[in-house]
TrEMBL record:
The keyword Transmembrane helix applies. It comes from the Bacteria. Keywords: DNA-binding, Membrane, Transcription, Transcription regulation, Transmembrane, Transmembrane helix. This is Helix-turn-helix transcriptional regulator. SUPFAM superfamilies: C-terminal effector domain of the bipartite response regulators, MFS general substrate transporter. Pfam families: GerE (PF00196). CDD domains: LuxR_C_like (cd06170). InterPro entries: MFS_trans_sf (IPR036259), Sig_transdc_resp-reg_C-effctor (IPR016032), Tscrpt_reg_LuxR_C (IPR000792), WH-like_DNA-bd_sf (IPR036388).
Length: 482
């Protein structure tokens, strides 16, 4: 775990950012066409449909426990499919042909991207949750770099835009796969659970809660896709300019995401909507007040919501996969099913609206979409059981390893230094050598709360490190008792 802890926040775990960047490049190229035509009916449905089929097959295959060989095989297969699909899409972009090569590329790349997310979600769930969160924060700068790089062909005459974007689409899967292989080699096997816990995992109320959680996120993603399509259709803005504003929005989303991870016990849909809905409301208000004057402000708000929401629901999938460590690939597969269904619903709804809507009606569509998003917020799971680690998880594991002498010594120390009940719990885990990430998961509290408790414990005991604490508690029983 020492090696994992040091490397967990490194670039290797941030490699999923290249996959994320690829998906947004595909999104922008798709939206550029579907906002002014019904190309979805002939092209995008093939991409989303093939992705959904692959995800459903993964659910069937990984219904039970998985092993590292299966994870490596999925990662390699996903890379091969994404690379082949990207090459076909690159040929279609260079040749400016939206026929055979474009359709074949989408059919092949779709399953590749879906399996890639399954592989990445699973491998990230094998690290400490704080390692995954640090790497997730690095995804956003990578995404910004990828999106801005895709605009270079339009600003630098040396590079033909189609050729430059084609090369980028091919290189991103390669970079993602290289970092995935590195991350997999550094990951640790999930700990085996008690037989009764393993038998209960994935059954009963937990499964129902997870299905409802993923369904809720699926509908929210559909709403965000409809909002984006309606915005582009109404204003007919340049997609290349949208990319620049989108990159700025991603930078704005970064501190919001960091703050959310800092103060929440465990990121859940209710906390996603808490900040996403107000920003969405502001965007719709701007769009109605003066759409011509504030078009880029509206675009900026939509970018913040899109980047923050999509990125953080990927993090929610990692939480769920970590909670069900022995069946992490099943949880990750269900997450891809949810996002794909959301994409299909959003694209289908917009294609239907497009047939009967005008530019003036796009604003009304924004209002309806906002209402649905608020409805999703009201129905979002607000409990901690799914995303926490209770009921036989880490907390149970910690309790099973406690020895009475350690507990007694911690109690003596807590009484001697006047620690609060929660500080006593933190002290108990620190005395066992537990990391702050472990304490956060075991007690289901935020990173900032853990840091505060540790600071108070150190101040009251007059020490400055965990080593001093362990030495004082375990070796100083006589002094404490006196």
């Amino acid at each position: 775990m020492e090696r994992i802890g040091k490397s967990g926040g490194g670039l290797c775990l941030a490699g999923a950012g290249f996959l994320w960047g690829w998906s947004f490049l595909f999104f922008f190229s798709s939206q550029a066409a579907s906002s002014i035509s019904l190309s979805f009916l002939t092209n995008d449905v093939l991409y989303l449909g093939s992705t959904l089929v692959a995800a459903l097959l993964a659910v069937r295959v990984f219904w039970n426990e998985y092993d590292v060989r299966q994870l490596r095989t999925v990662g390699n297969a996903a890379f091969a499919l994404m690379l082949a699909g990207s090459v076909l899409l690159a040929i279609s972009m260079v040749a400016r042909d939206s026929g055979f090569y474009a359709m074949a590329g989408k059919i092949v790349a779709g399953p590749g991207q879906g399996l890639s997310w399954i592989a990445w979600t699973t491998v990230l769930s094998r690290f400490d949750i704080e390692c995954a969160e640090r790497s997730f924060l690095q995804w956003i700068p990578i995404l910004v770099g990828v999106v801005l790089a895709s605009t270079l062909g339009n600003w630098v005459s040396v590079f033909p835009p189609q050729l430059f974007n084609s090369v980028l689409m091919v290189l991103l899967p390669v970079a993602s796969w290289v970092f995935f292989c590195r991350a997999l080699s550094l990951s640790s096997e999930p700990k085996r659970k008690d037989a009764s816990v393993a038998a209960a995992e994935g059954k009963g109320d937990d499964v129902k809660s997870i299905v409802w959680l993923f369904a809720n996120l699926s509908f929210a993603l559909a709403v965000i896709m409809v909002v984006w399509a309606a915005f582009l259709f109404q204003h007919q803005v340049s997609v290349e300019q949208v990319k620049v504003v989108f990159s700025l929005g991603a930078f704005v989303a970064l501190p919001i995401v960091w703050f959310a991870l800092r103060v929440t016990r465990r990121l859940a849909p209710s906390s996603l909507y808490r900040w996403a809905v107000p920003i969405m409301v502001f965007a719709v208000v701007l769009d109605f007040i003066a759409p011509a004057a504030y078009v880029w402000c509206t675009c900026l708000c939509l970018s913040v919501v899109s980047v923050g929401f999509e990125g953080m629901y990927h993090l929610v999938f990692i939480y769920v996969s970590k909670r069900f460590s022995q069946r992490a690939m099943l949880a990750a597969s269900l997450g891809v099913v949810a996002t794909t269904v959301g994409g299909m619903i959003g694209s289908t709804v917009w294609a239907a609206c497009f047939s009967h809507a005008s530019s003036a009606d796009a604003g009304k569509i924004l209002l309806v979409a906002l209402f649905v998003l608020v409805l999703c917020w009201s129905c979002a799971p607000r409990f901690g059981g799914v995303l926490g680690l209770n009921g036989g998880g880490v907390e149970g594991e910690a309790s099973s390893q406690n020895s009475p002498p350690v507990e007694k010594k911690c109690e003596l120390a807590a009484n001697a230094y006047g620690l609060t009940p929660r500080e006593r719990e933190v002290l108990f885990l620190l005395a066992q050598g537990r990391s702050r990430a472990f304490i956060r998961e075991a007690l289901f509290i935020s990173k900032g709360t853990v840091d505060t408790h540790v600071h108070h414990i150190y101040s009251k005991m007059g020490i400055g490190s965990k080593d001093e604490l362990v030495k004082m508690v375990l070796d100083g029983e006589d002094i404490i008792a006196s």
